[in-house]
Amino acid sequence: MYELVLQFLTQVFGLMYSVLTEDLSDFSPHAYEYIGTLNTILKGFASSLMLIAFCVGYIQSAVSLIEQKTPIAIFKTLARLVIVNALVVRGTDIILMPMFSVVRSLTSRLIEAMGGQAGLLPNIDESSPGGVAGAIGELLSINILTGILYIAVIISGLVLLLTVFGRFLKVYVYMSIAPVPLAFFAGGNVTAMYGRNYIKNVFGVCMEAVTMVIAIQLFCAIADDAVMTQVGGMLGFLGTMAKPVMLLLYLSSLSAIIKGADNMTHKLLGFV
Fold first, then answer.
1. Which of 118-127, 253-262, 263-272 is predicted most confidently?
2. DSSP string of 28-87, one letter each residue
3. CA dist., res. 95 & res. 66, Å (int)
4. Shortest CA distance to 152 belongs to which of 250, 228, 233?
């Protein structure tokens, strides 16, 4: 049974790697099309918001009417308005999509540098007699707690998958409303912080993939089957339970890191 759990987790991690390196248009073509549709719908509202932010920023940032009437100041103000208008119209394609593609490429290279999807978990202990049948017999020979531990491992693996899929949903939501927060850049220093925070959050969500990959690789390095076997031998009768218990402890830590990848990534990037 322990071997079956390892095989299950190997497949889970392989699927996670596949999803984390998926392109937005390939992961869900319909959701990708919806981003463009919603962007188009929100552009009218975002344009109005851009003009409001521009007026508020222009008025509040004016040190004096004379300074604001200089040709250079007027040129900078109008240039900012033109640039922000381009962001409202094409910001998703100009900034956000390339940002996601760069992080996706980084994630793929990181996986390849760490050995790809092969060997996600330590090698299965071939000394276990009877293969799958032996593992099932071993499970029946111990108390029900061990079975619960195995089920918990499977549930943890499913939680990891849900978290990875949930990251894609967050990316779609962030990009769908892009014109609205980008419009705040029109207000200069007065309102631009809202646009900057939005871009930081989008970048943080994209970088969650890197955090997740690193966490998975460290889990595979720490959850060494040889170490578990050695500890199992030291525990004697409880040795059969040592592997699943230790694996569950490591997997629980991994699940906590993956689920909290958003907060951890923002902290690592200095956004918090």
1. 253-262
2. -HHHHHHHHHHHHHHHHHHHHHHHHHHHHHHHHT-S-HHHHTSHHHHHHHHHHHHHHHHH
3. 36
4. 250
Q: Domain map of the chain by residue range?
A: 2-268
What sign does the dihedral 216-16-27-170 (CA atoms) show? Answer: negative
Report pLDDT for 195. 92
Q: For residue 252, what are the contacts with CB-CB under 8 A and spacing of at least 6?
A: 156
* CA–CA separation, 250 and 252 (whole Å): 5
Q: What is the pLDDT of residues 85-126, one digit of tens each?
A: 999 999 888 999 999 999 999 999 988 887 765 444 544 444
At 228, list the tokens.
């578990």
The Cα 193–Cα 83 span in angstroms is 16
Residue type, 47: S
% of the chain beyond a pLDDT of 90: 32
Tokens of 118: 């092969």
Note the pLDDT of residue 139: 45
Return the H-helix or E-strand segment holding 255.
helix 239-259
